[in-house]
Amino acid sequence: MAIDWIGFAYAALLAVGGVVGYTRKGSKISLAAGLTLGSVAGYGAYCVTRDPRNVKISLFSAFLLTIIMGMRFKRSKKLMPAGLVACLRRIHLIWTDFLSTERSAIKY
């Protein structure tokens, strides 16, 4: 069973980003969103670790965060944090899709 280290690392980055947003700007929304989406992404990585074909939660969180941060980037035109998070989430979305198709071809 392969562990989805990239998924867990991304979940940790989301949670840390929420805490940093709260400590720097006092944004309670950043804290709540970072911890919530970090938890969902972490659970998605756990599901992918347990069953490589179970990517629904990971893809859902990727899609949701890509849309939210993409809209924020389009409105603000600032790379940090919205543009960076949208780009990282898109990379993780592609990685998750790659893992699901690669692992589903392997016969257990």
Query: Could you spell the SSE succession in H and E letters?
Result: HHHH
Oligomer: single chain
Kindly name the structural category. Answer: mainly alpha
How would you describe the shape?
globular
Give helix % range: over 70%
Radius of gyration: 14 Å
Number-wise, the strands total: 0
Stretches with pLDDT under 50, minimum 5 residues: none
Average pLDDT confidence is 81
With helices defined by DSSP (H or I, 4 residues minimum), what is the helix count? 4
- Beta percentage is under 5%
Give the biggest sheet: none
Distance between the termini: 10 Å
Describe the structure.
This protein is 84% helix and 0% strand. α2 runs antiparallel to α3 and α3 runs antiparallel to α4. The longest helix has 26 residues, at 79-104. With 108 residues, the protein is mainly α. The radius of gyration is 14 Å and the shape is globular. The chain has helices spanning 5-25, 28-50, 56-76, 79-104. It starts with a helix and ends with a helix.
Helices and strands in order:
Layout lengths: L4 H21 L2 H23 L5 H21 L2 H26 L4
Question: How would you concisely characterize the structure shown here?
Answer:
The protein is mainly alpha-helical. Helices cover 84% and strands 0% of the residues.
Features:
108 residues, mainly alpha
